[in-house]
């Protein structure tokens, strides 16, 4: 429909070029105005709202692919244990001679970056300020500072949040969603998009299972239903139980149970 | 509150597209949002005027079209609209369904002057 004159209203289709009026544009006689959208006040855009982020993500993904780098975007609620899992993972992989680097995302402070730095891995802290997620543009800048080596592993610890980071592709090869057993069994049902878009789900702090009411089977049933293809890991970073399959998967040597065989 | 980032991206895209078309101001924005997209329409509607202030989108109306997601049941082959990823097939109770669409987040068109 023409929003300038209303012609073309559904059920009121005018004959082309026969309107009997103009829109006051110079040089246009009655009935002569074109049906070009712009003249009629409509601009077709048809563009994804996150196209700019996706453009940066595509660059990052291309960089990782070209360098043979496996990259991980760690997403969870605050306090699920991302930093602890990352510390233990880095210590183990660095000891095995793997090169690793880390991008830390937090709203404020560089506390996590300091913790990670003690493992010896190069780390770059991004403080997002008011923003509740990292975006691909920030990752691109962080990579310029980190200059990760060919064939290395890059970990991005996202801002603690199960909602917002989900919509922002960072160009990672693997999206890891963590759920700790001190949280609710039904968390996958409450935040389905995060679990649905993960390539791997880690159920962590399993050493605390004897002390909490967490129902592992029910939680796994929800995760499998939302994301049949995700790799699943049950582990305790604190005791080291269950870490080996996770480390093998991270290093690209297999490991992990596909959610649906 | 990532809707603020999305609203910012929306206004930037709208301003760029409108200026390219030679428009002076934007009166209405038509958006397509998937029913399963991770964006809350009410939050987006709340953030939009804040971000649009001082741009040619200031005062414009946001029109949202919700795009449904469709699911296919592996057990009975039936297709149904999916509003909840955990909901079973309405025909046979099968679950999970294989889901298509519903993640759209797109600026479709602008009405400008």
Describe what this molecule looks like in 3D.
The complex is a heterodimer of chains A (261) and B (113). Chain A is an alpha/beta fold and 261 residues long. Chain A has helices spanning 51-67, 82-95, 111-117, 136-146, 187-190, 192-197, 216-226, 243-250, and strands at residues 42-48, 70-75, 100-106, 123-127, 153-157, 174-180, 200-204, 231-235, 257-258. Chain A has an 8-stranded mixed beta sheet with strand order 4-3-5-2-6-7-8-9, with helices on both faces. In chain A, helix 1 packs parallel to helix 4. The longest helix of chain A is centred in the first third of the chain and has 17 residues, at 51-67. Chain A is globular and about 65 Å long. Mean pLDDT of chain A is 86; it is low at 1-35. Chain B is an alpha+beta fold. Chain B has a domain at 3-68 and 102-112: 2-Layer Sandwich (hypothetical protein PF0899 fold), CATH 3.30.2320.50. In chain B, helix 1 packs across helix 2. The longest helix of chain B is centred in the first third of the chain and has 18 residues, at 3-20. Classes of the chains: A alpha/beta (261), B alpha+beta (113). The interface between A and B is medium-sized, with 34 and 35 residues.
Write the layout of secondary structure elements.
The complex is a heterodimer of chains A (261) and B (113).
Chain A: E1 42-48, H1 51-67, E2 70-75, H2 82-95, E3 100-106, H3 111-117, E4 123-127, H4 136-146, E5 153-157, E6 174-180, H5 187-190, H6 192-197, E7 200-204, H7 216-226, E8 231-235, H8 243-250, E9 257-258
Parallel strand pairs in A: 2-5, 2-6, 3-4, 3-5, 6-7, 7-8
Antiparallel strand pairs in A: 8-9
Helix pairs in contact in A: 1-4
Chain B: H1 3-20, E1 26-34, H2 41-52, E2 61-67, E3 69-73, E4 79-82, E5 97-100, E6 105-112
Helix pairs in contact in B: 1-2
At a glance:
Chain A is an alpha/beta fold. Chain A has helices at about 50-65, 80-95, 110-115, 135-145, 185-190, 190-195, 215-225, 245-250; strands spanning about 40-50, 70-75, 100-105, 125, 155, 175-180, 200-205, 230-235, 255-260.
């Amino acid at each position: 429909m023409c929003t300038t004159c209303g012609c073309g209203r559904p059920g009121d289709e005018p004959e082309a070029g026969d309107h009997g009026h103009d829109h006051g544009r110079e040089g246009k006689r009655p009935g002569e105005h074109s049906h070009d959208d712009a003249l009629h006040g409509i601009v077709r855009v048809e563009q994804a709202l996150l196209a700019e982020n996706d453009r940066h993500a595509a660059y990052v993904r291309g960089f990782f692919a070209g360098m043979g780098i496996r990259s991980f975007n760690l997403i969870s609620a605050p306090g699920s244990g991302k930093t602890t899992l990352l510390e233990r993972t880095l210590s183990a992989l660095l000891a095995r001679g793997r090169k690793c680097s880390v991008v830390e995302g937090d709203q404020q402070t560089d506390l996590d970056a300091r913790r990670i730095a003690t493992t010896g891995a190069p780390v770059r802290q991004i403080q997002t300020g008011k923003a509740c997620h990292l975006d691909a543009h920030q990752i691109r800048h962080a990579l310029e500072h980190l200059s990760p080596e060919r064939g290395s592993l890059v970990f991005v610890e996202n801002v603690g949040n199960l909602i917002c980071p989900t919509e922002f592709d960072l160009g990672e090869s693997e999206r890891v969603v963590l759920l700790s057993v001190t949280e609710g069994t039904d968390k996958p049902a409450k935040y389905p998009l995060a679990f649905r878009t993960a390539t791997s789900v880690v159920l962590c702090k399993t050493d605390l299972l004897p002390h909490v009411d967490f129902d592992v089977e029910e939680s796994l049933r929800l995760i499998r239903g939302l994301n049949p293809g995700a790799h699943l890991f049950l582990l305790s970073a604190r005791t080291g139980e269950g870490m080996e399959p996770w480390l093998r998967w991270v290093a690209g040597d297999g490991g992990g149970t596909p959610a649906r065989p | 509150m990532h809707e603020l980032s999305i609203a910012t991206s929306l206004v930037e895209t709208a301003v760029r597209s409108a200026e390219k078309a030679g428009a002076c101001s934007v009166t209405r924005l038509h958006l397509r949002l998937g029913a399963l997209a991770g964006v809350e329409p009410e939050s987006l509607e709340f953030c939009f005027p804040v971000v649009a202030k001082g741009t040619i989108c200031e005062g414009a109306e946001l029109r949202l079209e919700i795009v449904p997601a469709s699911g296919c049941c592996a057990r009975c082959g039936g297709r149904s609209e999916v509003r909840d990823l955990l909901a079973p097939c309405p025909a046979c109770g099968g679950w999970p369904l294989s889901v298509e669409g519903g993640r759209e987040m797109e600026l479709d068109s602008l009405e400008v002057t």
